[in-house]
């Protein structure tokens, strides 16, 4: 069936058409959340009524078209409710990551001139209360959780909806006549920049609606589909793909309890499609291999044989269009013995994963494909609403992000930068004409990514333009392919290659500490802690051997000469990653500045400038 209404021009129009389509059908539901030990669905009629009530409350209390309203919450039904209520009034929502500290929240609320904030719980409420005195525009504060004790000038969502119910009884016409234009701004999403202050990306109703329509032509979804949502709704990728697209097609969205419970929630929700990021696949693959290693030698042999047959089968299909009768038979046997069991771990109904937000290592994609799990890798930026490219279910090319979606044009600039044009390109950065003019030139959006397009129109991203390393010898090096090679090793969790204005490259490696501890135990190595483990000669040799082996695949100037084993992982919590899981290179360089300088000083006399 696809889109329930293929002609919607604004998000309120999309919401209204879907609610209207499912009116009086209590068995159908857009959202389901975990209450106690089971998933509870929320019907379209109940949710629509809640949106109307909350909209009435917001309107009565001063929220008007064009006003900015922030949502500071984890994924939960209240997030979707707040979004629909705000947008249906012609107001603009400003989503905030719940992981943000008060000072960053304050900057965004002040910059956007936010008039109302809707928060999830007491923790988030506390952040806003601590900065409220610095926010002269902020007049309304609503908390989704029930307030056990009154807080001055704060109302909880239940009371707001109750007030809205009464308002609609007294003034049944009060929500009539709100006009929303396709070119009105729907949301301002602040990009969590890896350098500098975040910028507010203005996305219009047209931007988002056209992107949903384009994606719906490729990823066929209907009301028999359901998804598990765990990526933050504050991210444009989950917002467009994991929310608007699914809602527009009548699919059901199950909310994961947390990132830690995803494996359990998958077996409960039994999703047919999951929008995710590559880090999840690393985690699933590691857990799978860990589990297999505890099985009998025979079972391990069968699993490895099944992976090998799967890889050969798909390679043969890709190159020749078919597989030999023997390989086809082996693939069918492997399906019975292994692939079916793997699919059961994902609920047994999964059609495909959609991967975005970061590059998917080619070997990871091929590993899952070999086990009968399809991953459709895509690409886009907040500024592009966000989907520009996605692999097609009928032709997946790992190592690429696929061709463009409908309505999006793409070309490669002379310096290799990927440029886009289409109705999905943002209106601009909020109150920042200079920054807007830097990225939108001659009608083309400059993505900041370096890439190449193959003969089938599939885009391969080779690196971020600003991450290109220029050595002191003038060599231009894209670090991402080198980082991907290093990251394939099971003893590596994260990696960052550095060498800007330096004579050669070195790598900052975050070890997979669990794997190291297992190796240490089997090798009889003892150490007081992880730092002691990293200093042990045999552990250091693991990484020396790794760099020697990948050196054979690299040009002389691309070789990584030395490495530093990082003290701790790069995470959002320690400020070394953005909320969208991008490594903050500048912050990490500052943190390890002394160790990096020491290596270059020590080796400067050894290596000549390339």
TrEMBL record:
Ordered alphabetically, the record's keywords are: ATP-binding, Ligase, Nucleotide-binding
Q: Name one GO molecular function term.
A: ATP binding
Question: What is one Pfam family matched by this protein?
Answer: AMP-binding_C_3
- Which CDD domains did the record assign? VL_LC_FACS_like
The Gene Ontology CC terms held by the record are: membrane
The reaction(s) catalysed by this protein are: a long-chain fatty acid + ATP + CoA = a long-chain fatty acyl-CoA + AMP + diphosphate
The AMP-dependent synthetase/ligase domain, residue ranges: 26-430
Protein name (database record): Long-chain fatty-acid-CoA ligase
Tell me which species this is from.
Answer: Chlorobium luteolum (strain DSM 273 / BCRC 81028 / 2530) (Pelodictyon luteolum)
């Amino acid at each position: 069936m696809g889109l329930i209404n293929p002609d919607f021009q604004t998000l309120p129009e999309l919401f209204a058409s879907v609610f209207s389509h499912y009116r009086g059908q209590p068995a159908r539901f857009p959202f389901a959340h975990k209450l106690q030990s089971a998933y509870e669905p929320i019907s379209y009629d109940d949710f629509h009524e809640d949106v109307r009530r909350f909209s009435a409350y917001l309107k009565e209390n001063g929220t008007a078209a064009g006003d900015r309203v922030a949502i500071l919450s984890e994924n939960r039904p209240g997030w979707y409710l707040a979004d629909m209520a705000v947008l249906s009034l012609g107001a603009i929502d400003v989503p905030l990551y719940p992981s943000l500290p008060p000072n960053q929240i304050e900057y965004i609320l002040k910059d956007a001139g936010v008039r109302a904030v809707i928060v999830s719980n007491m923790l988030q409420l506390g952040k806003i209360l601590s900065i409220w005195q610095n926010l002269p525009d902020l007049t309304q504060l609503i908390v989704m959780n029930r307030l056990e004790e009154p807080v001055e000038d704060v109302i909880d969502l239940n009371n707001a909806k109750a007030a809205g119910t009464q308002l609609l009884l007294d003034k049944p016409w009060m929500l009539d006549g709100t006009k929303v234009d396709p070119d009105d701004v729907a949301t301002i999403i602040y990009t969590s920049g890896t350098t500098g202050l975040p910028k507010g990306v203005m996305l219009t109703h047209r931007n988002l609606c056209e992107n949903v329509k384009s994606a719906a032509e490729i990823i066929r979804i209907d009301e028999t589909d359901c998804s598990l949502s765990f990526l933050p709704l504050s991210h444009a990728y989950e917002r467009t793909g994991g929310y608007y697209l699914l809602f527009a097609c009548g699919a059901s969205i199950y909310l994961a309890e947390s990132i830690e419970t995803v494996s359990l929630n998958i077996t409960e929700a039994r999703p047919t499609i999951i929008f995710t990021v590559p880090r999840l696949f690393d985690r699933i693959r590691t857990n799978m291999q860990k589990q297999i290693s505890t099985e009998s030698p025979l079972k391990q042999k069968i699993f490895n044989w099944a992976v090998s047959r799967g890889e050969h089968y798909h390679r043969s299909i890709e190159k020749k269009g078919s597989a030999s009768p023997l390989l086809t038979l082996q693939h069918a046997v492997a399906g019975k013995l292994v692939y079916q069991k793997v699919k059961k771990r994902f609920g047994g109904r999964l059609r495909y994963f959609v991967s975005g937000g970061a590059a998917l290592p080619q070997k990871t994609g091929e590993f899952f494909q070999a086990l009968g799990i399809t991953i459709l890798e895509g690409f886009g930026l907040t500024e592009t609403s966000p989907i520009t490219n996605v692999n097609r279910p009928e032709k997946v090319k790992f190592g690429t992000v696929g061709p463009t979606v409908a309505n999006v044009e793409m070309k490669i600039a002379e310096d290799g930068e990927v440029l886009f044009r289409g109705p999905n390109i943002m209106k601009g950065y909020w109150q920042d004409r200079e920054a807007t003019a830097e990225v939108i030139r001659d009608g083309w959006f400059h993505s900041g990514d370096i890439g190449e397009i193959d003969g089938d129109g599939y885009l391969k991203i080779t690196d971020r333009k600003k991450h290109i390393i220029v050595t002191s010898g003038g060599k231009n090096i894209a670090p991402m392919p080198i980082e991907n090679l290093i990251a394939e090793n099971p003893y590596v969790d994260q990696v960052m290659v550095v060498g800007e204005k330096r004579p050669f490259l070195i790598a900052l490696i975050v070890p997979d500490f669990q794997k190291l501890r297992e190796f240490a135990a089997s090798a009889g190595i003892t150490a007081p802690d992880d730092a002691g483990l990293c200093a042990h000669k045999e552990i250091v040799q693991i990484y020396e051997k790794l760099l020697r082996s990948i050196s054979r695949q690299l040009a002389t100037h691309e070789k990584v000469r030395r490495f530093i084993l990082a003290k701790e992982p790069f995470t959002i919590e320690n400020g070394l990653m953005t909320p969208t899981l991008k490594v903050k290179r500048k912050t990490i360089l500052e943190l390890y500045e002394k160790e990096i300088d020491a290596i270059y000083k020590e080796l400067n006399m050894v290596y000549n400038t390339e």
